[in-house]
Amino acid sequence: MRFRGKSVRRKITALLLVPLTALVGLWAFSVAITAQEARELLAVSAVSDSLGRPAEAAVRALQQERRQTMVYLADPRNQADLRSARTTTDHAVARLHLAADTGARADLNDGAQQRLDSLLNGIGRLEQIRGNVDANTTTRAGALEAYNGLAEPGVRFVSALHLLENVALDRHGRAVSGLGHAAEYLSRTDALIAGALVAGTVTDTEQRRLTEGAAERRQAFATYLPDLPLDDRQAHDYFWQVGLGHTLTVTEENLISHGEDSIGPERWEDVTSAAATELRSLADAASDRYQDEVSPAATAVLTRAAVAGVAGLAAVLVSVFVSIRVGRGLVRDLRALRREAHEAADVRLPAVMRRLGEGQTVDVETEAPKLEYGRDEVGDVGRALNTLQRAAVEATVRQADMRRGVSDVFVNLARRNQVLLHRQLSLLDTMERRTDDADELADLFRLDHLTTRMRRHAEGLVILSGAAPPRQWRKPVQLMDVVRGAVAEVEQYERIEVRRMPRLSVAGNAVSDLSHLIAELLENATVFSPPHTAVHVQGERVPQGFSLEIHDRGLGMTPAALAAANETLANSPDFELSDTDRLGLFVVSRLARRHAVRVTLAPSPYGGTTAVVLLSGELLSDAVADDTDHRAPLPDRPSPPALLNGPVDGPVELDAPVSVPGPEPLRETLAPPPARRRAEPDVPLLPRAAVPEAADA
C-alpha cells in the first residue's frame, strides 16, 4: 500500500476514513477507561467511610484545638478548654492512624495517597507545636500558622476523595470539597479573632486577615454552590441570606468597621460556633447526598462497559498502521520543504541583503536557484516557494539599486548646493570687507551665519548618503578652534559657553567630520533647552584620549528614549526615510563610526542631557597647528561684541573670532582686501572667521 505521489487531499482522506471506520474498535479501547471509572466509583463509598470520615473528624478536632490555643495564648486562664480540645484531637488522630493502617489505603489514587501522607506527617509535628504553646515560646500568629499547616492537608485529602472521572459527579464532588475549604476559612478567622478579642485588641493585621478570610470564604461559596443540587443550594442560600450565616456576616462587618469595641469574645463565640455547627451540618448533608449518587452512577458505568466489546481492536491497529505510513510520508515531504524555506529565509536572503548593503553585486540566478519538488500539492508549495524566493531577491536587488540611486541624487544635489554656498560665502566675505555701515554689516554677518548653517545641512545629506565630506584639511587644527568652528554653525551660538581646553591638535582628515559632529550635538542641545539657559562645553584628557562633554539644561530624555538614542549612536543603523525626525542622530552616528569616536548620551547634572564625545588618541596630537599654509586673517576685521547678550549666566569664552589655520582652497585663493575701518555691528554674531576654512575635496 503506497501513498507516495498521491495528492494531499487523498492522504488526508485516508487518514480520516480509516479512523472513522474503526470507531467501534476505538470504543472497545474506551472499555478499560470505563472499567477504571466504575472501579473508582465503587471504591468512593468504601474509602469515604473508612478514611474520609476519620480524616474529617481529625480536621475538625484540629480546628477546635486551634481556636482554643489562640484563646489560651491570649489568656492562660483558659487552660481547661485547651486541655479538653487536645484530648478530643488525640482521639480523632488515633482513629485516623488506625484507619490508615488498614487496606483502605490501597484504594486511593496516587494523589490521594500523597495528601494522606502529608496529613499524617503534619500531625506528627503536633506535639512540638503544643510544646511551644505550653512553653509560651510562640505568638498567636505563629501558632495560627502552625495549626493552619496541620489542617490544610486534611482538607485537601478529603477533597481528593471527591475527584472522579465522571463529569457530573466530579462537579458535585468538587462542590462538596469546596464547602470544606470554606469551612476551613471560617475556622481560621474564628480562631484568629477569638484570640484577639480575649486579648482585648484587634490589630490592623488581624482585621486585614479577617477581611481576607471572609472574602476567600465568600468566593469559595460563590464558586462551588452553583454545582450543588437544588436542595443543597437552597439550604445554603437560606443560611447565608437569612439564617446564622447572615448573622455571622453582619458580625464580621461590624468588627471590621468598628473594631473590638463592637463585640465581646462571648458574643463572637456564640455567633461563630452556631454558624460553624450549622455549616457543618449542611456540608454533611451535601456529602451524604453525593455518596448516595455514586453507587447508581457506578452501576450505569458498568452497564455501558459490558455493552462495549473488543471487536474494534483490529480496526484500531489498522488505523494506527495506516496513519503512521501516511504520516511519515507527509512528514518527509514537509520537512524537506521546511528545510528549503528556512535556508531561503535564514541564509540566502539575509546574505543577499548583507552583500547589497556592502555594495557588492548580486546575481539573482545564483542566489535564488530553482529547486525541484514532486508533483503533488507539497511540490506545488515548493514551486511557489521558488517563485517567492526569486521575487524576494529581485525586489531586494531593485530596492538596493533604488536606494543607491536616491543616495546619488542626494549627493548630487548636496554637492551643487555646496558649490553655490561656497561661492555665496566668498561673496559675503567680500561684501563684509567692503561695507562701512554697521547695520549692513550686522545683516551680512547674519546672512554669513545662515549660509554656514546651510552648508552644514548640505554636508549632512552627503554624510547620510555615504559619501566623503567635501571639506578637508591637510594639516592638524587646534581642538579649541574645531570646537569654535562647530559653535559658529549653530543657530543659537550665543548661548554656548566653551571652557578652556588643552592645546591639542586634531588630525586634518578628521577636522571637518569632528566639527560637523560637535555642531549637530550643540544644535540639539540648544533646541531642546530653554532659550535663557546656557549650553556648557568642556573637555579634558582621559586615558583613552580626550573627552568632550556638552551639557544642556533642558527637560532631558526618558530612559527609553535615551536607550534608543544611544543604540543608534553606537550601532549606526541604516537610515530609513521614516526616521526623518532623527537626522542629527544618524549624522552623528555615521561620523562617529568613520573616525572610531564614541558618542553617548546621559542625564546631565544640570537637569537636561549630557553628550559625551570620546576622541581616541590617534586623532589627537600635542603639536601646535602650523599657520603658514593657511589663509591670512582678515585685516582690521571688527570683532563682534560679546557672544552672550541675553539672560544666560556666566561668560562665554568665545569672545573673539578665531582664524583657524586651514589649507588654501584648491580652486581659488581669496586674498584679503585692503584694510578698511568700519563701525561694529550692534548684534551678538559669530563671524565666519571663527570657522576653519578647508580645502575643497
Automatic annotation (TrEMBL):
Alphabetical GO biological process terms: phosphorelay signal transduction system
Histidine kinase/HSP90-like ATPase domain residues: 509-619
Catalysed reaction equations from the record: ATP + protein L-histidine = ADP + protein N-phospho-L-histidine
EC top class, as a word: transferase
Keyword Membrane included in the entry's annotation: no
Keywords attached to this entry: Kinase, Phosphoprotein, Transferase
EC number: 2.7.13.3
Stored InterPro entries: HATPase_C_sf, HATPase_dom, Nitrate/nitrite_sensing, TCS_sensor_his_kinase
Region (Disordered): 628-697
Gene3D superfamilies: 6.10.340.10, Histidine kinase-like ATPase, C-terminal domain (3.30.565.10)
GO cellular component terms, A-Z: plasma membrane
GO molecular function, one term: protein histidine kinase activity
Protein name in UniProt: histidine kinase
Species classification: Bacteria, Bacillati, Actinomycetota, Actinomycetes, Kitasatosporales
